[in-house]
């Protein structure tokens, strides 16, 4: 039996376990840094599979690090697992499937790693959707979890198969202004209106948009606009996402946005606080040679990427932070028979459907065998690393 057939056999033998796990996670949706059930059910299963597991890592109580190391030297492979839900709607992005697929892929590769050499890891990364201490992959990168890693893989549920695409870098920021309350009619001259400062920020952003490239997105909400119309608001706040196609462009945008905040404070006399409310998210840097290996393995199972498949890189994901430091793929796997929008009720239902659950087995096989190909072909892995370095260096300035 070939190594790939052995991987497939193990995946098939374990598939029902991971389908069950995916359904249980779907039934109990949890948001960023509160995914205790999902973290425990996945990490406990990986312990049973023979992995050494640590929970509460990289500053995230619901993050985990599962490892199995061969006695033979070889590449370090990471499968990143997502398992957070969306606030209010549950698993409408399919992360219940994502975490199960990555974990099963690691189990499949572990079945042959002692023979081929190397190390298999699963990083359980909370809060991909953002939220409390969100975008945990940035923490894993910052805390050195990828320093000795050779390649990273994960596959995301979608309405169709697809390859890794560029995404936008994202800085999620909070803006707060502190003024002075007063009677809005009786003594308005005694007040300092914090809400006026927030509105000035909105006006400044609208003016700035005339002088930005098409890839830049700025969108936000007022999170506090005062308590009563007859009281000058002494506190007001807003939350914005600042996005751009690359980190250098976004860093420049961040400085411009902060200058708008400073200007609003000067105009109104209010004091201000400004900064990130969760991790920075970097743009995804694709490595096409890596995706090519994934596609070849997908085709092995009679599954193909539509010729007209296209995805604009309009969203953001913390997979980007990983892709900045190691070759990374983040392709898409089909979980429905037709188009469904992400973050919708239809997507939530597809995430527990028969085709959705079956995607766990397909995804695990394709990911594990993609990693195996690179372990067995050091020259190809070296070419992928070279292409990755060049693509990171050549990002838009």
- Structural class, from secondary structure content? alpha/beta
Query: What is the H/E string?
Result: HHEEEHEHEEEHEEHEHHEEHHH
- Beta-sheet strand percentage? 15-25%
State the distance separating the first and last CA atoms.
49 Å
**Count of alpha and pi helical runs:** 11
Query: How are the strands of the biggest sheet laid out side by side?
Result: 1-2-4-3-5-11
Number-wise, the strands total 12
Radius of gyration: 23 Å
Task: Describe the protein.
This protein has 397 residues and is α/β, with parallel strands linked by helices. It is built from eleven helices and twelve strands. A six-stranded mixed β-sheet has the order 1-2-4-3-5-11. Strands 8-9-7-10 form a four-stranded antiparallel β-sheet. It has a two-stranded parallel sheet with strand order 6-12. The chain is elongated.
Keywords:
397 residues; alpha/beta; six-stranded mixed beta sheet; four-stranded antiparallel beta sheet; 12 strands; elongated
Describe the protein's topology.
Layout (H helix, E strand, L loop, with lengths): L2 H25 L8 H13 L3 E6 L2 E10 L6 E6 L13 H22 L2 E6 L11 H7 L8 E3 L2 E3 L10 E10 L15 H15 L8 E8 L10 E10 L2 H22 L2 E6 L11 H12 L19 H5 L4 E2 L2 E3 L10 H6 L3 H23 L1 H16 L4
Parallel strand pairs: 3-4, 3-5, 5-11, 6-12
Antiparallel strand pairs: 1-2, 2-4, 7-9, 7-10, 8-9
Helix pairs in contact: 1-3, 1-10, 3-10, 5-6, 7-10
């Amino acid at each position: 039996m070939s190594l790939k057939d052995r991987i497939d056999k193990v995946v098939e033998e374990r598939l029902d376990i991971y389908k069950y796990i995916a359904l249980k996670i779907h039934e109990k949706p949890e948001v960023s840094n509160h995914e205790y059930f999902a973290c425990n059910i996945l990490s406990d299963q990986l312990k049973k599979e023979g992995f050494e597991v640590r929970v509460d890592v990289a500053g995230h109580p619901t993050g985990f690090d599962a490892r199995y190391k061969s006695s033979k030297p070889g590449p370090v492979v990471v499968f990143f697992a997502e398992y957070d839900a969306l606030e209010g709607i549950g698993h409408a992005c399919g992360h219940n499937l994502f975490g199960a697929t990555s974990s099963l892929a690691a189990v499949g590769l572990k079945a042959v790693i002692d023979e081929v050499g190397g190390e298999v890891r699963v990083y359980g990364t909370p809060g991909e959707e953002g939220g409390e201490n969100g975008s945990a992959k940035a923490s894993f990168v910052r805390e050195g979890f990828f320093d000795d890693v050779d390649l990273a893989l994960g596959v995301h549920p979608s309405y169709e198969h697809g390859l890794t695409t560029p995404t936008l870098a994202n800085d999620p920021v909070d803006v707060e202004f502190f003024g002075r309350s007063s009677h809005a009619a009786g003594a308005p001259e005694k007040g300092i209106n914090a809400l006026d400062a927030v509105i000035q920020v909105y006006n400044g952003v609208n003016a700035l948009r005339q002088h930005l490239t098409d890839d830049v997105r700025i969108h936000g909400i007022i999170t506090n606009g005062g308590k009563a119309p007859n009281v000058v608001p002494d506190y007001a706040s807003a939350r914005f996402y600042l996005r751009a196609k690359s980190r250098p462009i976004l860093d420049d945008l961040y400085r411009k946005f902060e200058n708008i905040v400073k200007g609003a404070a000067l105009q109104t006399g209010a004091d201000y606080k400004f900064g990130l409310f969760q991790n920075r998210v970097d743009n995804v840097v694709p490595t096409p040679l890596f995706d090519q290996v994934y596609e070849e393995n997908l085709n092995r199972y009679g599954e193909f990427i539509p010729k007209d498949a296209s995805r604009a890189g309009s969203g953001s994901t913390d997979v980007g932070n990983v892709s900045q430091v190691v070759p990374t793929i983040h392709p898409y796997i089909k979980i429905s028979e037709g188009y469904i929008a992400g973050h919708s009720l239809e997507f939530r239902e597809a995430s527990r459907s028969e085709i959705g659950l079956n995607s766990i087995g397909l995804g695990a096989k394709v990911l594990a065998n993609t990693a195996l190909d690179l372990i067995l072909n050091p020259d190809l892995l070296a070419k992928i690393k070279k292409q990755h370095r060049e693509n990171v260096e050549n990002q838009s300035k």
